[in-house]
């Protein structure tokens, strides 16, 4: 590190819902507010838990693919420049994932508060298409240049970020559910990190 879609009618709770100005009659908040990570604009764990199973179900017998994207050495950003700088990097990653997932995938921040792990599900998509998407994500993260103010007040541009990406294929006939899909993709991330980081690893079937 250097001093570095989905149809909203089908999947409610995405950022597309809030953009349409629809609000909950009970709480007054925009639809999707409670299911969206406020930092990155991606789905949060609750939104993921609602939308990802529905997407897999809608895909039917078609193959779907999950990416787990884990930033490499992200802690160094927080340690060197502070957590606000880290937040800026996470926001930039969120923009990358939204641009790649676009209207064909579901992107979520999986790590919770302070987390640097993300999920991207491509329902009814073959593995080669998803691997191409993973390569685009990896390249775009490497190309990021994030302007921040360091803890000592200096303006700094954070570059040189990288990510390890695990890829797991959901085959309905194999009996894989969403949790097993996440576990397999997460295991592939660990494989990518053990192989030197900044890599893409495909989980075994």
Structural class: alpha+beta
Into which percent range does the helicity of residues fall?
25-40%
- Give the overall shape: globular
- Unreliable stretches covering 5 or more consecutive residues: 3-20, 22-29
Strand order in the sheet with the most strands: 2-3-1-6-7
Mean pLDDT reading: 85
What's the helix-strand series? HHEHHEEHEEEHE
Oligomer: single chain
What does this structure look like?
With 205 residues, the protein is of the alpha+beta class. 39% of the residues lie in helices and 18% in strands. It is built from six helices and seven strands; from the N terminus they run ααβααββαβββαβ. It has helices spanning 15-19, 45-59, 75-81, 83-101, 127-143, 178-194; strands spanning 64-71, 106-109, 117-122, 146-149, 155-158, 163-170, 200-202. It has a five-stranded mixed beta sheet, sandwiched between helices. A two-stranded antiparallel ribbon has the order 4-5. The longest helix is centred in the middle third of the chain and has 19 residues, at 83-101. The radius of gyration is 17 Å and the shape is globular. The model is unreliable at 3-20 and 22-29 (pLDDT under 50).
Properties at a glance:
205 residues; alpha+beta; five-stranded mixed sheet; two-stranded antiparallel sheet; 6 helices
Brief account:
The protein is α+β, with helices and mostly antiparallel strands and 205 residues long. The chain has helices at residues 15-19, 45-59, 75-81, 83-101, 127-143, 178-194, and strands at 64-71, 106-109, 117-122, 146-149, 155-158, 163-170, 200-202.
């Amino acid at each position: 590190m250097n001093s570095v879609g989905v149809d909203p009618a089908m999947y409610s709770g995405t950022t597309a819902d809030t953009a349409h100005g629809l609000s909950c009659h009970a709480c007054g908040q925009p639809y999707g507010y409670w299911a969206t990570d406020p930092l990155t604009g991606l789905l949060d764990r609750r939104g993921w838990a609602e939308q990802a199973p529905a997407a897999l179900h809608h895909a039917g017998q078609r193959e779907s693919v999950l990416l787990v994207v884990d930033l490499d050495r992200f802690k160094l950003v927080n340690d060197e420049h502070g957590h606000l700088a880290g937040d800026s990097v996470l926001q930039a990653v969120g923009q990358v994932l939204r641009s790649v997932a676009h209207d064909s995938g579901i992107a979520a921040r999986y790590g919770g508060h302070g987390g640097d792990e993300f999920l991207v599900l491509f329902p009814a998509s073959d593995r080669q298409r998803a691997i191409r998407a993973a390569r685009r994500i990896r390249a775009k993260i490497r190309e990021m240049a994030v302007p921040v103010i360091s803890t000592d007040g200096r303006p700094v541009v954070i570059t040189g970020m990288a990510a390890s990406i695990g890829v797991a294929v959901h085959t309905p006939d194999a009996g894989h559910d969403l949790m097993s899909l996440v576990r397999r993709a997460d295991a592939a991330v660990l494989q990518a990190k053990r192989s030197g980081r900044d890599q893409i690893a495909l989980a075994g079937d």
